[in-house]
Write a structure and sequence with these properties.
alpha/beta, 165 residues, 50% helix, homodimer, globular
């Protein structure tokens, strides 16, 4: 089973491609799609959509897992992140993948066992779970990998067995 | 100058196509793109994006004007509307049109002269401005036409003159 995790954002949108086959979970790719703060928002959303469609076309994932956008103190940022997540969701559905949303708490709990885990703990567990020689950078890419791992932890055992055959 | 106005929404996304040539402003088309509430949100956003791309491809507007999403009492609805507006913006930029956002107050003020106008006043002024025999229905389509008319009122005189040549 191949999962693309997404940490949505307009300036920086993290993605992490994770494959699970039998008991082995491995990171296939991770990175950040950036758009220029000086460009108009519609242009940036279009670029994000185009790059996301290309990414999903390259990897053909079974599932796309996106971190749910919660309303923070900065309402303007939340709207940008919400628009970016909408564009990413549309790209995911357009690529024929099943799209899932997970809250920050669900993701932290799935990775560290505790919904209140801090960034350091998350980074360390992502490194451990994927047996990486060093912490994954940048942080948006690591966060996106965590979303993908969260989906694998939540995916029904049946579909994981099926994917492993 | 051809403008597509958009009243963004996930269940109902209104659109209104308005042409201004010289002193004549006319409604070319108006309607609502609907998505099924029972379908998953990513699928609905993908459908909205696809239909919006087709609409813009059909009309090739010079500008796309979108009503800005403000945070209402219902945070879950605001997020859906925000995601829909993000998808519409991406489609607009992808179609090569300039994309503009106007607040509900700006739109009301441009159409009726007063930022606190109610739905009845707005509907009546849209009918008057476009010399329609009866009020435009459904309301989402009329709202979208109002956004397009707001853009024409804000567009610099120079570009209106240029478009009229």
């Amino acid at each position: 089973m191949l999962v693309v995790g997404i940490d949505p954002g307009l300036s920086r949108c993290g993605y992490g491609v994770v494959r699970q086959k039998g008991r082995v979970t491995e990171a296939v790719a991770a990175g950040v799609i950036r758009t220029d703060k000086d460009d108009p928002v519609p242009q940036r959303l279009h670029e994000l959509h185009t790059e996301m469609v290309e990414l999903l076309n390259d990897y053909q994932p079974d599932a796309v897992a996106i971190e749910q956008v919660l309303f923070q103190v900065n309402v303007r940022t939340a709207m940008g992140v919400g628009q970016a997540s909408g564009v990413a969701m549309a790209a995911g559905a357009g690529a024929g993948a099943e799209v899932f949303e997970y809250s920050p708490t669900q993701i932290k709990k799935a990775i560290t066992g505790w919904g209140g885990a801090d960034k350091e703990q998350m980074s360390q567990m992502v490194q451990t779970l994927l047996r990486l020689p060093e912490p994954l950078k940048p942080v948006d890419a690591a966060d996106a990998v965590a979303v993908a791992l969260c989906h694998l932890a939540h995916a029904p055992a049946a579909s994981r067995i099926q994917a492993a055959v």
